[in-house]
């Protein structure tokens, strides 16, 4: 398993996935900081929120509902494409490893890429706020803690895109499905009933549930996210063991 993880990490060096994982949240963070500096007086006037909370909102506002699902879709699809092209499966499965080990190692890499993505967003917001000299106590629980919870909330999305990406050899299939499922996220997040049936809304709840009274949800959402992740990944593993990947 450790050897496989090492091989997968070496493959990442020759791909653009790390740049996607880092570049997308970094761009949103810089844009959020720029908006904060430009409109902070207007946004802070008459508001009970602290400047840290306003900066947090500016950096995160579009990410969990729009960009994050698309970034996950693209990264996982590209990760699978490394094996779908140029007889990658044939070469990989010829090694003295089991299919379950291959499956789990690639899943770990996919999760690490998403964790890196969310970490850059949280740490970038924190560092940016310190660099521009925002006063007051730093809300670490909000900026860093919510980022970790958002990772848990994204697990079902990772699982679905992971199974789709390794099930279909054509990269366009998981990309199209992932984009279509991400499109109605904002509408579903504002629904009192149907949001629970759309895992793409979970990151929105993780980031903004505590701050927006209208969409506050119970912590049991994270238990559901973990349960869905394990179920989908298990089903995908059983199918992966039986399929002719070469």
Protein traits:
mainly alpha, 246 residues, 75% helix, 11 helices, single chain, 0% strand
Task: Write the topology of this structure.
Blueprint: H1 2-13, H2 17-44, H3 51-60, H4 63-84, H5 88-93, H6 99-131, H7 140-167, H8 172-182, H9 185-189, H10 202-208, H11 220-242
Helix pairs in contact: 1-6, 2-3, 2-4, 2-6, 4-6, 4-7, 4-8, 6-7, 7-10, 7-11
Describe the structure.
There is one protein chain. The chain has 246 residues and is mostly helical. It has one domain (2-242). The chain contains eleven helices and no strands. The protein has helices at residues 2-13, 17-44, 51-60, 63-84, 88-93, 99-131, 140-167, 172-182, 185-189, 202-208, 220-242. It starts with a helix and ends with a helix.
Brief digest:
This protein is 75% helix and 0% strand. It is mainly alpha-helical and 246 residues long.
Beta fraction: under 5%
What is the count of β-strands? 0
Roughly how many Å is the radius of gyration?
19 Å
Number of domains: 1
Measured as a percent range, the helix fraction is over 70%
> Taking all residues together, what is the mean pLDDT?
84
Described by strand count, sense and barrel closure, the largest sheet is: none
- Termini separation: 21 Å
| Overall shape | elongated
Transmembrane segments: 18-40, 60-80, 107-131, 143-164, 171-189, 220-237
Keywords: Membrane, Transmembrane, Transmembrane helix
């Amino acid at each position: 398993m450790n050897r496989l993880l090492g091989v997968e990490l070496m493959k990442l060096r020759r791909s653009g996935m790390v740049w996607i994982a880092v570049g997308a949240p970094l761009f949103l963070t810089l844009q959020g900081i720029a908006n904060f500096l430009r409109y902070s007086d207007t946004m802070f006037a008459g508001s009970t929120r602290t400047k840290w909370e306003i900066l947090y909102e500016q950096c995160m506002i579009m990410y969990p509902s729009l960009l994050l699902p698309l970034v996950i879709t693209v990264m996982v699809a590209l990760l699978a494409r490394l094996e779908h092209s140029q007889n990658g499966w044939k070469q990989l499965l010829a090694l003295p490893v089991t299919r379950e080990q291959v499956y789990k190692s690639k899943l770990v890499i996919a999760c690490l890429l998403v964790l890196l993505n969310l970490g850059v967003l949280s740490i970038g917001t924190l560092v940016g706020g310190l660099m521009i000299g925002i006063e007051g106590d730093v809300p670490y629980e909000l900026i860093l803690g919510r980022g970790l919870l958002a990772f848990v909330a994204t697990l079902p999305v990772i699982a679905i895109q992971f199974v789709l990406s390794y099930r279909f050899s054509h990269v366009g299939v998981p990309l199209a499905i992932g984009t279509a499922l991400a499109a109605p996220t904002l509408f579903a997040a504002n629904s009192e009933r149907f949001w629970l049936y759309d895992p793409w809304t979970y990151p929105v709840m993780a980031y903004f549930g505590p701050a927006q009274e209208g969409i506050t949800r119970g912590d049991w959402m994270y238990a559901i996210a973990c349960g869905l992740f394990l179920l989908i990944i298990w089903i995908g593993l059983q199918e992966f063991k039986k399929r002719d990947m070469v």
